[in-house]
Write a structure and sequence with these properties.
- The complex is a heterotrimer of chains A (787), B (175) and C (293).
- By secondary structure, chain A is α+β, with helices and mostly antiparallel strands.
- In chain A, the strands form 9 sheets. Chain A has a 7-stranded mixed β-sheet, sandwiched between helices. In chain A, strands 7-15-14-13-8 form a 5-stranded mixed β-sheet. A 4-stranded mixed β-sheet of chain A has the order 20-28-29-32, sandwiched between helices.
- Chain B has 175 residues and is α+β, with helices and mostly antiparallel strands.
- Chain B has 2 domains: 76 residues, Ubiquitin-like (UB roll); 70 residues, [2Fe-2S]-binding domain (DNA polymerase, domain 1).
- Chain B has a 5-stranded mixed β-sheet, covered by helices on one side.
- The longest helix of chain B has 16 residues.
- Chain C has a 4-stranded antiparallel β-sheet, covered by helices on one side. A 4-stranded antiparallel β-sheet of chain C has the order 10-11-12-13, sandwiched between helices. In chain C, strands 1-3-2 form a 3-stranded parallel β-sheet, with helices on one face.
- In chain C, helix 10 runs antiparallel to helix 11 and helix 11 packs antiparallel against helix 12.
- Chain C is globular.
- Chain C contains 12 helices and 13 strands.
- Classes of the chains: A alpha+beta (787), B alpha+beta (175), C alpha+beta (293).
- Chains in contact: A-B, A-C, B-C.
- At the A-B interface, helix 1, helix 13 and helix 17 of A face helix 2, helix 3, helix 4 and helix 5 of B.
Chain lengths: 787, 175, 293
Amino acid sequence: MGASRSDGDHGSRLARDRQTVVGKRLPKLDAPEKATGRAVYVHDVRLPGMLEARILYSRFAHARILNLDIERASRVPGVKAIVTGADNPAARFGYGKDNTPLKADLVRSLRDELAAVAAVDADAAQEALELIEVEYEPLPGVFDAAAALAEGAPLVHPERGTNLFTTYEYEHGEPDEAATDSDVVLEASFSLPYVVHAAMETSAIVAAFDSRGRLTIHSSTQIPFLLQRDLAEALGLEGSDVRVLQPTIGGAFGRGLDIYPFEPIAALLARKSGRPVRISFSRREEFLAAPVRQPAQVHIRAGARRDGSLTFREADALLDIGAYVSWGTVTPLVMLETTASLYRVPHVRFRARCVYTNNPVTGAVRGYGNPQSTFFVETMMDRLAEALGWDPLDFRMHNANRPQEQTPQGLKITSCGLKECFEALASRRDGQLTSESDGRSMEGSDPHGGLFAPSSTVRGIGFAATLNVGGGARIYRSDGCGATVKVDDFGHATLVTGSTEIGQGSETALAQMVAEVLGLPIERVSVVNSDTDLKPWDVGVHASRTTFIAGQAAYLAALDARRQILETAAEMLGTQPEQLVPRDGLIVSVDGAHSIPLGKAVRGRHFRPDGKIVVGEGWYDPPTSLVDKASYKGNISAAYSFGAQMAEVEVDRQTGKVRVLRLVCAHDIGRAINPMAVEGQIEGGAQMGLGYALTEELIVKDGRVMNPDFADYHLFTAADMPQIETVLIETEDPLGPFGAKGVGEMGGTPTAAAVANAIYDALGVRLTTLPMTPERVLQALDRAEGR
Amino acid sequence: MHRQPLALNVNGEPRQVLCDPRWSLLDVLRGPLALRGTHRGCDTGRCGACTVILDHRSVPACLLLALSCEGSEVLTVEGLATNGSLHPLQRALVEHGGIQCGFCTPGMVMAALALLERNPRANSQDIRSGLAGNLCRCTGYVKIVEAVGAAARELAAVPARTERDEAAVAASGSA
Amino acid sequence: MRPFEYFAPESLADTLQIFSDFGPEARPIAGGTDLVLQMRMGELAPRALVNLTRVAELRGSPTSDGFPYFLSALTTLQKLCQSESMRMRFPALAEAAATMASGQVRNLATVGGNLCNAAPSADLAAILLALGAIARVVGPRGERRIPLEGFFLGPGRTVLASDELLLGLEIPDPVGHSVYLKHSLRACMDIAIVGVAVSLHRVDGRCASASIAMGAVAPTPIRASAAEAELAGERLTPDRIERAARAAAAESRPIDDMRASAWYRRRMVEVLTRRALTSVAEAETGSGPNGLL
């Protein structure tokens, strides 16, 4: 019998000073395997007889397919199977049920899949691909969301009659009245770009049918159970005939949150050829065919009063979602959450329209609407502060969210350390750059080839805060996760969790929680987080939910296992379970008089005629609700994480180049199960945030990606990174396991705003288009100076 | 395409393979040599994931035509750990939290190894510059740089034993 | 990638024979860092690849202490930026190399490869132009010397015949000071948005020689002759530096592309030229441009 809780467990309040595993900076369990190169990623999976496959993509962004001939391709030696639209199963798949694995009559984007070839090696597959003959009738395309809404625009999905996929509309309070009640009302328009995940491992899948007709896939998905179901539907299989295995995952960042055509395509090829099939994307293909972040045009008005209180915010966003819909189309929900609930704003109106175009397919990207919305909300906060004559940090503190507050949107904020985050920034505002970490001389020469003439550089500091879901996010009917904990005769525990390690360290954090509950050293805990045949259900690794939700599930399962062990240990020791505690691999009585190795108690439980095994189970689905379909109000998460960042920049007025010297990241994470891992998540998030701010943009013209490589899609390297200081604020959330809340996305959500505000402080110009490249900065400066 | 013989020394062992002239060193390592610890991140020499050490220089294995490595010495991540224990660089990355998804890690380790071999007293700025060719999307590089710095200090603190030292140790009868 | 025959000859004679046999269908390869990518993308499909790195005559290059200095085409970029003697003798050249790609790529990429790839933005080309380098080329018809100004024909094209090889560069002993400034988005790993190289020598406060070269602002790396004319024989006042910078910007012919607009590039030429001249002037006299302390 498992334990289920929805009220927060106070047993996790093992006094902090007695905790020996949780809260410690432990190395990740999988780190040694990764350090030695032994970890197996999807690209490393080898199955007997496995074929390599390649996909043929459309040559046009919008066209009718008149003819497709695979005759010559099929005669290439080594080719074992070719699939085309004719092989499509009946069902459409995807969040909008608007997609098919291969396209037969119509292509709607340059990444539309027309055919795929499986052959004994990649060269043969490529050779065959080049021999597939396609006759197109090009059609006019639409490559801009506004144009797609205009009268007479080409329709991406004609049967829908419109390119408008969906509209989100929200209001709380009386924004129009509030506007007239304000002492200052400001407005601005923002332009947000395409960016990509750029995980170091490219997309890949291995699909294989066994002799019973069951499909096993090896995937770097973040949603193994949803994928299991979606794939079954897409292929016309029963869900019970699909098994999803997850090898080591080389980064995900939201890429794996959906089903994408290459996945059923691999399965179709495996079925047709009777052999395992791998599809692995080249890096170029990753840029050209993997999902990307929706670009958006946003207009916002915001007001405040002289006493420093915010009055209203009104934002209108137009998102280009591309040719087919994915879960990424729900990002406006998060934009809405930030617009309505970051800081205390009594009146808010929000609208977002998601529009089909013949542009690249978009999906979920880390932050999921939050980097975008934090950018426009926090720029306006800065402007309001200035207009009212308030210091930017004081203004923010004045309006900060507070603990135990419910926002007008219905978010039930419990723990909230936003004020403490701001205080951490305030105390570091006049901080010095350490010479070691910056390493560059402050004036004169830049060893990397530029020359900062001292008189032409100016410095500035900027701030931005973030509100993020930290206790799950109910955007799907269930936000639950299951776990089991099995303990063996040697005192070793195996946690089987529905969640997935994508590199973020969830496996280790969960192991730490289980170890703490069972009184075991971390070395005696293993974690299994692969195999849908084996692990309990979980909705997926997203929305920073894993520490909180999978953590609670693991915690409950461990508690259940502990209960079973203590029951038997009590019998064996002739005492009551309440008199026993697990510690250091033993079960000890509180008076210290008796002890028994934990493994011995486990063995004692099953080594008898009426024996039982020790397997604990836990299921946790937080006490939250789906937002109301009409009003979008409700409490979507069991806890909210907060953060604030301060960026110090140096801007070269003559070139427009911005160098971030220092970034201070203060984040309320409830409790750091593993502070080293939490810092790592924030620091990694900041690298993405900095790229979003300054250097990353996927350039798309007429539906075509112009920079599908690392030469011209610029990620921050080690040499570009500023000095980063991370401050962890622990507010001990009442519902979080050991008080913890989520942190996965927060590190990169306020960064672009902090940098933009710092640029304003330095130069006196505001940029509202990302990324803030040197050319854009110089243009803005010229305009401001009348040149 | 007609395959040609290629002989090279990999992780201290002489290896021979039949090689398609179009193959890169990375193709040979991951293919016939089954050394899959070296990862393919971009195949364009721009991410550093495939960094190996060739004749004592760090190189991007994806850009080297395999046949041009005839007779060379190649060191990959698989050749680092000795007797089951991690190289100090690997251990430092583990202990300092410099590994998240791990995909960039082998290339990072090899690049750092080459860097420290050339500049044992590398400071944090040298490390950042030296690892600028290795992209990481998970860590923000902070703990990687810390780890490499720690490993540098550890490696510098252990004096290398010269032949004279060895002889002296043997003569004195102590371990 | 199309199939090809692979050769690794050990003598110049064997090398030239292969080029003679295959004609324009044979390409030389050294580090291969540009060539392999172009072949993978299908931009180039040679029938023969000739690895130059084992050719005795090319390897044993007379890296002389003599004058003029001979820089072998097979010198790797990493060797260029790390060698003490290069850093002493041609610091701007060493610095230019250090800005390119990554350490790993620089361990393979060669001077010859960078020049023969003939990208308009080639960092080494700009600084070598400013240093007055002369290319030494060898082929079946013998050797010839080509001043670098005449070496580049357009993006990806040089004056080399398909059976000729670049042996290396003769670089006159530097007098005065030189600097290479590269404007790019990141600290490294990027192709230059604009690159400006300056080499300047003053006698009695007047410019005895001034070379200014620019990359990524024309179909080839070019000399800014009008800007140079502004300086010849003149004192290096801030005003004169300004005029030279403007002249350089005016004679650049940048295009709009994904990396930057023509407007921005022209502006960066002006900024970088001004900065380069100022820094070289400071280095020369230790007291900055004439009229400034």
